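README, section 4: Worked example with a bound small molecule

Sections 1 through 3 covered apo chains. Here we extend the same pipeline to holo records, where the ligand is supplied as SMILES alongside the sequence. The molecule in this example is flavin-adenine dinucleotide. Nothing else about the input changes; the structure line simply encodes the ligand pose together with the chain.
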Amino acid sequence: MPARGMTRSGSLVSQLVDLVGTEAVVRAADLPDYAIGPLLPVAAVKLTNPDEVAAVMAWAHRTGIAVYPSGGRTLTQLGNTPTRPGIALDLTGMNRIVDFQPADLTVIVEAGVTIEQLDSAVAQDGKHVPIAAPLGDRATVGGTLATGISGPMRSAYGLPRDWLIGISVVGADGTQSKAGGKVVKNVTGYDLNRLYTGSLGTLAIITEATFKLAPAPTEWAVIVAGFDSIDAAAGAAQNLQGQHYAPLGLHVLTGEAAMRIAPSVAGSALSVAILGGRPTSMKRRVEDTVGLWAQVGNTVHVARNDEANGLINALTDLPAGGDSPPRVCVRINTQPSALQQVLAFSRVALGSAEPPSVAADVGFGGGRLLWWGELADADPALVAIGLQGIQSEATSLGGGAIIERCPDAVKALIDVWGEQPSGMEIMRRLKQQFDSQNILNPGRFIGGL
Amino acid sequence: MTDHDLLASIRAVVGDEYVIAHREDLLVYEYDGSVDRSMPRAVVLPADTQQVSRVMALAYDAGVTVVGRGSGTGLSGGAITPPEGLQIAFPRMDRILEVDTVNRTALVEPGVINLDLDNHVRGFGMRYAPDPSSQRACSLGGNIAENAGGPHCLAYGATTNHVIGMEVVLEDGEIVHLGSMAREAAGYDLRGAFVGSEGTFGIATKILVRLLPLPETVRTFLGIFPDIDSACTAVSAVIGHGIVPAALEMIDALSIKAVQNVTDAGYPNDAGAVLLIELEGLNEEVDEVSGEVEAALWDTGAADVRVAEDDAERERLWVGRKTAFGAFGTIAPNYYLVDGVVPRTRLTQMLRKVSEVSERYGITIANVFHAGDGNLHPCMLFDAREPGVMEGAMAAAAELMEECALLGGTLSGEHGIGLEKKEFMPLVYTDADMEAMQRVREAFAPENRLNPGKIFPDGSYWRPSAHPAAYTAGMYV
Ligand SMILES: Cc1cc2nc3c(=O)[nH]c(=O)nc-3n(C[C@H](O)[C@H](O)[C@H](O)COP(=O)(O)OP(=O)(O)OC[C@H]3O[C@@H](n4cnc5c(N)ncnc54)[C@H](O)[C@@H]3O)c2cc1C
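The generated complex, written as structure tokens:
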């Protein structure tokens, strides 16, 4: 059956059909699914193996057409607006668990495997890859690595880059290569695992990933406490962070974010602790945490196992998930000591519009500012100035701020990645080295890379 | 600029006494911990970042190669400098600039010694987790360049997991900051790419490292086994049980003998192998896991399982482990080791290969290594004055690296490729894989002036000279 996209841009689609076959070419009617902000791809292909990816990339490199790799499409909001029309490369068809070695604590998966699929594949043996992304039932491993997105336990488990031990990619010119391997310790050659992670698909297309595994906690609990003031919530959280039994994740939530996570726990701010471990240590962890917080909080609620997992998922999904994701979301990267400054954003209205709800990550530092309401309808120029103000304040705190979601009209006025870092020239040269034609996700990354 | 002019300009920057250019003074800079040697043109000892930057700019303009040097304990020839090149060393940049107890970070200069940092921050209830066995001598700058590991990297990850940001001087003298003060930064992870780049991307002049709080409880076990096979099975049993200890080290019979020759570490002289296992965490957690570890050791044929009764005994067990390489000097005058990695379930197979190779080449090989990570250190012991023996050791090393690759492993777990292993890179990487790596180097150092000729195969076969083990023993550990 000929693809209906033919009528849109005939020769392009027929070239793609020649390359990867009719089945792989997405129907024109489905193209809107692949939109990135205001950009609608001129065609899309859904590929099932790295050779197809290589064929399409080699062709794109020759013709100069832009390529937008696409996973579960849960974070397409991330990044600046693409600068050129191009084709979408759907990798969700590459969804095999390639090799799971529980005794070696390693697993190899294709890029289109979802986080949920990865979790359940290794969970049967009591293991986990402690990475997380919003909407884990759709978010892919490739997308999670490309965005470098992490979940509410990043303070204890680190970032996706810390679990990736090997990677296979297709370069901008269609060359297939790999880095790392399948052993947990490796300094053979440069660490490209870390370079590709978080590069938003602007250097190469990730086709396969190898992770190291950890034994998963056998029990989970989430402890939620309500406080009369944001300061009290922050104090209680910081106190817990200093203990031997500090949790795997520790957050302070204000406003709408608090409402969404635990509507029944009263207070103007919440502290949330994620606990995991073996039965005997969990007993101590829960008791000591409750003991510490009961003295200072209004109500302390202990959620276990299924309820706890629900809360962990809700925290993970906060920036992008649910029926009504936030309309504006900023990720603040700062040191843990800047907690007060991060929480203070909850009192600052941008322009005349609503102040944000804050989800501060006490253990890792930084956190997110979230707006569900009217800010997204305010004058884009004012919102842009406000968001840039947040970015420069975060920069002055020794970190930075990334605008993860905002209206297209605002995005057009800013670099969502913030101020250009000191290594910007090296980054430009990297992009030039890896993608000389600028065909991979052009314009979406920092400084217009 | 003539060579003489260059050195004069550099003297004007750092001071006369901080440029070493006399042959006899340069002798110690000719070596690192590996087998190769080469005398640099001169060694420069800058006092701060500005001086590093100005020296680099001068060398860049003169078209001269620069190689950074930490403590010279590297085991892959990383700090070996070509005869026309300049070495920059950091004995004057050895300050711990700041310890932040709230954020649990320390800001250090590259010349700080790994153990000095750890000891210093322990005073604040924290520690610097990466603990190479050479930690009494090696520098943070060298650790960053090699992405150094160590026994406790099993649970906490290698150096790269503990570096938040860096100040770096590029080949042309430009000063840049990689990473940030926060654990995550926008843009490409240049920090991540830099760690492990073996001094080819830039010179690190300040390093912001992550510190960990001290655990509530530490418990150290010595699993005593009749032979190395059963010890390997025990390693797989522990890991396969879903236990990742803080450290899991293997010491074979020959290494036990060497260690016990120089210090009483408490290892039984008649054991076939011992496992040194450390658990850390909450009291309850350590109690619970201890039972499982002990059971796994007994189940796999342990002759005995001992627990360190106090800090002094724990310390003694660790001193044994960390003294092993120096102690080899009591068995043979020279040693040479490689540090391949295999998937942990292949350890038994790999060690059989090691003993087969040892027999076939008639070279004694001792094994003391990071078993929990599958990171071997087969250490060949010999007398390099015997004709042909060095060549034999090199050929044996090549076979061992090939076997690691065959078993799904890799060439180096923590010592780096440097000069020593560069011709073996094609065992694990294709041309395309290495081209991608070279692109990153092009972006950091377009003129390839920093530590050139390392890591990638170029067919320039070099003739190694054996490294005296006794010298290492006295010098480093
Ligand atoms: C007995 C013994 C035991 C060892 N045990 C371990 C172990 O358990 N784990 C482990 O990982 N390693 C181990 N090693 C290897 C070695 O100690 C490490 O590789 C260490 O990181 C090297 O540090 P160094 O200061 O001696 O660096 P050097 O040997 O001086 O240099 C190593 C590399 O670092 C580069 N370099 C130095 N300073 C800088 C800088 N400021 N900026 C950029 N590049 C720089 C050099 O150019 C060179 O390429 C051991 C070595 C010995 C001798």
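What to look for in the output: The CA atoms of residues 117 and 292 of chain A lie 37 Å apart. Chain A touches chain B through 84 residues (CB under 8 Å).

Section 5 describes how to batch many such records.
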